[in-house]
Design goal:
The strands form two sheets. A four-stranded parallel β-sheet has the order 4-3-5-6. A two-stranded antiparallel sheet has the order 1-2. The protein is of the alpha/beta class. The termini are far apart. The protein has one domain: Dna Topoisomerase Vi A Subunit, Chain: A, domain 2, CATH 3.40.1360. The mean pLDDT is 91. Helix 3 links the parallel strand 3 and strand 4. Helices cover 39% and strands 13% of the residues. It has six helices and six strands. 20% of the residues are buried.
């Protein structure tokens, strides 16, 4: 059993790599999402890591393509823009017909910093590009009395109109 486990780990190491387009983990390059012509709608959802991409994909509502940063900006940890796949995202803007970038970084200090950095950088690159952020706030089934201040603040700022 140990030998089979060792062989499996070696096989994963040899076969799994980054997609040359979105930088998600894959055994095919480009990955199945990047190869899918039906998903080429001009929308890219930017996520921190492969786990975030997987969660969005499993939700089944997003039908565009992804870009995996492989981290977030964290000056205290010595992680700057050059340590993430930000340059590759900018290259995609030049190669692909991108109309919208959806920023889906996590609602942490580092995730918010990364999103703000990307908004500034992307808006300088293209005035026509629509830049959006995933909604943040109270989760379905959540109870307001258990929400933290930041969650409630985001929920109030991100409110949407309701039409009868």
């Amino acid at each position: 059993m140990a030998e089979n486990l060792a062989k499996s780990l070696i096989e994963v190491k040899e076969k799994i790599r980054f997609c040359s387009v979105c930088f998600n983990l894959t055994d095919d390059d480009p990955c199945t999402i990047c190869r899918n012509e039906n998903r080429a709608d001009g929308t890219i959802c930017v996520v921190e890591g492969p786990g975030d991409q997987l969660a969005l994909e499993e939700a089944g509502t997003f039908k565009g393509k992804y870009h995996v940063l492989h981290g977030v900006l964290s000056p205290l940890d010595g992680i700057g823009p050059e340590d993430l796949k930000i340059g590759a995202l900018l290259s995609r803007l030049e190669r692909e017909e991108i109309r919208e970038i959806i920023l889906a970084t996590n609602p942490t200090t580092e995730g918010e910093t990364t999103a703000s950095f990307l908004v500034n950088l992307l808006s300088q690159k293209s005035r026509k590009l629509k830049i959006t952020r995933i909604a943040l706030g109270v989760p379905m089934g959540g109870d307001l009395k258990y929400m933290d201040r930041m969650t409630l603040e985001h929920a109030l700022k991100s409110r949407i109109p309701i039409h009868p």
